[in-house]
Write a structure and sequence with these properties.
The chain is 46% helix and 12% strand. By secondary structure, it is an alpha/beta fold. The protein has 2 domains: 113 residues, Rossmann fold (3-Layer(aba) Sandwich), CATH 3.40.50; 119 residues, Rossmann fold, CATH 3.40.50.
Length: 251
């Protein structure tokens, strides 16, 4: 790119409240890769929890606010596939803001998607000498198409893998079931607790059976679910968002 793109950094609520270190890692990583990054202080929830609970009409205010706040940037980047998908595909239609809505739709990206498709990162000078298992979250996988799905007859690809395999010493672990849901699903984990936990245990077991050192992913909600199960079972596997790995590796 001829000039540094101006990025609006969108940090979802649960990242801000529970994992601020991931927000910092995302900011530092983008700056290391030559981006001009701004963090709009007025940002709020994108409205996904309300919409997922059946209150789509109640998200109009937060949707308008998001569009007004982020419309000015060249790109909008977030370390969360689920929130990006909500903004792109599940905002209520706002006829009086159609131009802004279309522009934001075309310019908002999940972090790994932005690095591979827009910045077109080809080299990463850094090392991370550990065995890494990657959890492909449903929103990113089947909504944003960040990786190929086993149910589709298409060539294999994985945008996170493209990035992580550029790091010296990192061993990418091929899981037995690469694209299985972890069972979190937001309110699903509350309304269907037993099923959610069992799905999480199955997903965790796949990583543990391959003796991964670090379990990573692009959606902290899924990682939080899996980490909670791991801690309750006394498992020692480390959990890191992919932004943390990349930022730490190229320090």
């Amino acid at each position: 790119m001829n000039s540094a793109p101006h990025i609006g950094l969108f940090i979802p609520c649960y990242v801000d409240q529970f994992y601020p270190q991931v927000a910092i890692a995302t900011l530092e990583l983008l700056e290391k890769l030559g981006c001009q990054v701004s963090y709009p202080l007025g940002q709020t929830c994108c409205g996904q929890p309300l919409a997922n609970s059946g209150y789509e009409r109640e998200t109009e205010g937060s949707s308008r606010h998001f569009l007004e706040l982020f419309n000015q940037f060249d790109y909008i980047v977030a370390p969360s596939g689920s929130c990006v998908l909500h903004v792109k595909e599940h905002f209520p239609k706002l006829p009086d803001m159609e131009k802004e809505q279309n522009r934001v739709h075309d310019r908002i990206y999940e972090l790994t998607e932005f690095l591979t498709d827009i910045l077109k990162v080809e080299k990463l000078k850094g090392s991370f000498p550990k065995k890494v298992g990657f959890h492909s979250s449903c929103h990113g996988l089947r909504g944003l198409r960040l990786a190929s799905c086993s149910e589709l007859n298409i060539p294999h690809f994985n945008k996170a893998q493209q990035l992580l395999k550029k790091l010296d010493g990192l061993e990418w672990v091929e899981l037995s079931r690469n694209d299985e849901c972890c069972g979190f699903g937001g309110t699903f984990a509350i309304t269907e607790e037993a099923l959610s936990i069992q799905m999480g245990k199955d997903r965790l077991a796949d990583h543990l059976s391959h003796e991964v050192d670090v379990l990573t992913g692009g959606d902290l909600s899924c990682l939080m679910h899996l980490e909670g199960i791991a801690k309750r079972e006394g498992q020692k596997v480390e959990f890191m968002h992919i932004a943390e790995i990349l930022n730490q590796a190229i320090r």
